[in-house]
Amino acid sequence: MSSITFEATVNGRPVRWEVPAGEFLTETLRSHGLIGTKRGCESGDCGACAILLDGVEVNSCVVLAAQASGHDIVTVEGIGDARAPHPIQEAFVDAGAVQCGYCTPGMVVATKALLDENPTPTRDDARHALAGHLCRCTGYVKCLDAVELAAERTANADAAHGGA
Ligand code: FES
Ligand code: FES
C-alpha cells in the first residue's frame, strides 16, 4: 500500500509520520499511541473519536490523515491526563458522568470546544454540544451536569486569576 507523509502539530508537538494513503485520522492517532481517541461507529455518528482540528471539533474517523496534514490537532491527551487532569475532566468524574468511560474522551473534547467558544453555556447549549455523542451508560443527564460544573469551575478559576 502506498503511504503519505503526515506532518502536523499534535498536542503542541510537531510530528512527521509515514502513514498509509487513505488512512483515517483515528487510526493514525491511535497507531501513534494516542488511544484516548476511541474507535466507535467509524461512520461519523457516535462522537467517540472526536478531536479538535484547528480548534474545531471533528470526528476523526471521517477525516483522512491526508486532509489533517498541515493542521493543528488536539486529542483528549492534549487537554489533560491522569497526572494533570483538566477541570473539564475532573468535572466529568465529580458529576458521576463517567461509567464505562468509552464516550468520555469525545465528550470532554466536545465540552472543551464549547467552553472555548462560549464560557457560559446554557443547558440547551450543552445539549447541543453533546448531541452526536452517544453514551450507553449515563442517560446523558450527568454529562450535561458535568458540562455545567466544568463551566462554573472554569469561570471561577478565571475570576480568581482576575480574568473576565
Ligand atoms: S467512531 Fe467516529 S463518530 Fe463514531
Ligand atoms: S459512560 Fe459508557 S458509553 Fe458513556
Q: Please report which band the strand proportion falls in: under 5%, 5-15%, 15-25%, 25-35%, 35-45% or over 45%.
A: 15-25%
In CATH, the homologous superfamily of the largest domain goes by the name: Beta-grasp domain
Silhouette: globular
Average of pLDDT: 96
Count the beta strands.
5
**CATH third-tier fold name of the largest domain:** Ubiquitin-like (UB roll)
Radius of gyration: 16 Å
Instruction: Count up the helices.
Output: 7
Small molecules (ligands, ions, cofactors) in the structure: FE2/S2 (inorganic) cluster
Provide structural commentary.
This protein is 39% helix and 16% strand. With 164 residues, it is an alpha+beta fold. The chain folds into two domains: 3-79, Ubiquitin-like (UB roll) (Roll), CATH 3.10.20.30; 87-160, DNA polymerase, domain 1. The chain has a five-stranded mixed beta sheet with strand order 2-1-5-3-4. Strand 1 (3-10) and strand 2 (13-20) form a beta hairpin. Helix 4 packs across helix 7 (141-160) and helix 6 (123-130) crosses helix 7 (141-160). The chain is globular. The N and C termini lie far apart (52 Å). The mean pLDDT is 96. One FE2/S2 (inorganic) cluster binds next to loops.
Features:
DNA polymerase, domain 1, Ubiquitin-like (UB roll), 164 residues, alpha+beta, binds FE2/S2 (inorganic) cluster, 5-stranded mixed β-sheet, 16% strand, 2 domains, globular
